[in-house]
Design a protein that fits this description.
The complex is a heterodimer of chains A (312) and B (289). Helix content of chain A is 65%, strand content 4%. Chain A contains 11 helices and 2 strands. In chain B, the strands form 3 sheets. Chain B has a 6-stranded mixed β-sheet with strand order 6-7-8-3-9-10, sandwiched between helices. In chain B, strands 2-1-4-5 form a 4-stranded antiparallel β-sheet. Chain B has a two-stranded antiparallel ribbon with strand order 11-12. In chain B, helix 5 (109-120) runs parallel beside helix 7. Classes of the chains: A mainly alpha (312), B alpha/beta (289).
């Protein structure tokens, strides 16, 4: 007797053979509830994928910075970043910020998106940090906006405080703009290659590259897990406790999956001769256009330094 | 074994035993010989040990008991620690994993394909030439600078195969090559495997797809669910042995094989008898091909 012939007979239970009573047979008359924090978090996570896709598209545009070799771009934008850090006057920093806007336009980046991406986070992070520095208790000086008294002392925003805050805010905005210019105009893989040729350890770059590659894989797994849960969730109400349980369970399951995947990836690497030494393709040769870009970058920096001297 | 045959032996496994974590058996006394230029299919149900055997053949896992020789050399964890031996073995054996996501780990397709030859120590110019040739051969030139997350399942499979073929291995191991692929990619892959074999490559593949067996293999090895080998022979002979296929969980009691085609017929839960020749003819007559 074979295993196949020994197979037990399956008999479906009666409840499975009759139709379930519909929970809402008469249309959408139920109470509406907002989604849980889990769905919002996952929506944010899928936004990351959209963002990555957008960055890849932007990096493929035939703009100015896209044509520059990533190594040259990395070094030159780092140079501009250093110059920005040393500028001491607001006009000079504004000039430098203007240079970044010009570069964004020349690189065919949507200007509105570029500005929004930079300024969206500045009030949130820098603004909160800088706000106390505008007060006379932190930065003494002539009060331009009186705020009343505090324990018998006059409290207000000082002009020197505002100046210091403006310097920090514009400096941060310009620095972020330079970094955004680099990341939006350089495909991730070419940025990694640039890091490799600039003496960042190859193994570090390899791990970084793999981490970025598998983030999308794991993001897909999390989304699948959530979809599977959602498709079996009858009551869509906001239940924080079950949401937390789901997040904890998914994290555990994901950890297991990651472990299994990492073992398989390692085997795939060993199978193709990996012996612990990261080897990479030769970086492309530099072109004349890269020299033109270097001249443009130096000119931009010199203009900003000149303005700084004039107003500093 | 005659000496001419002996010289032709590429792989030789003798009484291999392997347990995952020392507890869960995956191979229980498996012996297998593969000759140069053969197409060998490992057949068996899920979890019977096919993939484990492929990993052993690729020197990624090592048997708890038993010996494995490849190209006349004993393959052990110790022997592969020798840099030269390891490089020689890795360049002669290519393994296409079932899960293409595990195999395509580099930031771009081009870097993925270059990974193997770079590790073989080839000159960068030769690596670049090989990568371009392989991209062209598999018709994936337009994917060269794409990231893996931008590829479909079929494209990832092509990239995984390219990443192995670029090393020009003598022996190619495929784990469930046609699983989860659309019909066109499946057909493309089958034709590629046949072509590679004609070009002199030895093929060992794990599958439970009996429909394409006559194309993919000229010899089959059947695993039992107890992780042992049950039978060995030509695809036609094994497919004719219904009892063997049922015992190995390769066909269902309601599956029928007409010539080379395997069919499954829906049935009422109350009728689980083994088909008699009479009802098999009836089933064949109503079969939608």
């Amino acid at each position: 007797m074979t295993a196949g012939l020994d197979e037990p007979q399956r008999v479906a239970p009666a409840w499975l053979l009759s139709n379930e009573v519909g929970l809402c047979p008469c249309g959408c008359i139920g109470k509406r509830k907002k989604g849980s924090f889990v769905s919002k978090t996952l929506a944010g996570a899928s936004g990351m994928l959209r963002q990555a896709m957008f960055s890849e598209d932007a990096a493929a545009e035939p703009g100015l910075l896209q044509r520059v070799d990533p190594r040259v771009k990395l070094v030159s934008l780092l140079g501009l970043l250093v110059v920005t850090a040393f500028l001491r006057s607001v006009p000079a920093l504004v000039t430098m910020y203007g240079v970044t806007l010009l570069l964004a336009v020349a690189s065919l980046l949507p200007l509105g998106f570029f500005v929004k991406r930079v300024w969206l986070f500045i009030p949130l992070f820098t603004g909160i940090v800088v706000l106390p520095a505008t007060l006379n208790v932190i930065t003494p000086g002539p009060i331009v906006v009186p705020l009343g008294t505090w324990f018998g002392h006059e409290l207000g925003v000082t002009s020197t405080g505002l100046h210091a805050a403006a310097i920090i805010v514009v400096r941060v905005a310009t620095s972020i703009s330079l970094v955004v210019l680099l990341t939006l105009t350089t495909p991730w893989n070419r940025l990694l290659a640039a890091l490799r040729s600039l003496f960042v350890p190859k193994i570090f770059v390899l791990v970084l590259g793999m981490a970025y590659r598998y983030v999308f894989q794991l993001l897909g797994s999390v989304t699948d897990m959530y979809m599977a849960r959602r498709s079996r969730t009858v009551d869509p109400g906001v239940d924080l406790a079950s949401g937390r349980k789901f997040v904890a369970a998914s994290a555990g399951a994901l950890f297991g999956k990651t472990h299994a995947l990492s073992e398989e990836v390692y085997m795939a690497m060993v199978s193709r001769g990996y012996d612990g030494n990261a080897r990479t393709l030769r970086p492309p040769r530099l072109r004349a256009f890269d020299a033109v870009w270097v001249v443009i970058a130096i000119a931009g920096a010199m203009v900003a330094v000149g303005v700084d001297r004039a107003f500093g | 074994m005659p000496s001419a045959d002996r010289a032709d032996v590429l792989l030789e496994c003798v009484d291999l035993h392997y347990r995952y974590l020392g507890r869960f058996p995956a191979l229980d006394g498996v012996s297998l010989t593969v000759h140069r230029g053969e197409k060998v299919a490992l057949l068996g149900a899920n979890g019977c040990g096919k993939s484990t055997l492929l990993k052993l053949l690729d020197g990624l896992l090592f048997a708890d008991l038993g010996t494995y020789r490849a190209f006349g050399e004993l393959i052990t964890e110790d022997s592969l620690e020798d840099e030269q031996a390891s490089r020689g073995f890795r360049s002669r054996v290519g393994f296409v994993f079932q899960n293409a996501d595990a195999q395509v780990f580099s930031p771009t397709v081009r870097e993925e394909i270059a990974f193997g030859p770079l590790n073989m120590g080839l000159a960068t110019s030769e690596v670049e030439q090989r990568v371009d040739d392989t991209l062209r051969m598999l018709g994936i030139e337009e994917l060269a600078d794409r990231a893996p997350y931008q590829l479909s399942g079929g494209e990832k499979k092509r990239v995984a195969i390219a990443s192995v073929l670029v090393m020009n291995p003598e022996l190619l191991l495929f784990d469930e090559p046609t699983a989860a692929l659309d019909p066109r990619t499946q057909q493309w892959l089958i034709e590629l495997i046949v072509e590679l074999n004609r070009a002199g490559k030895t093929i060992v593949l794990a599958t439970h797809d009996l429909d394409t067996l006559h194309l993919l293999a000229d010899r089959c090895v059947v695993f039992t669910e107890e992780h042992r080998l049950a039978a060995e022979g030509a695809p036609g002979d094994l497919l004719a042995d219904r009892d063997l296929l049922l015992a190995a969980n390769l066909v269902h009691v309601h599956s029928h094989i007409h010539d080379r085609d395997l069919h499954s017929h829906p049935h009422d839960a109350g009728h689980h008898d083994a088909p008699s020749p009479a009802n098999e003819t009836e089933a064949a007559a109503t079969d939608v091909r």
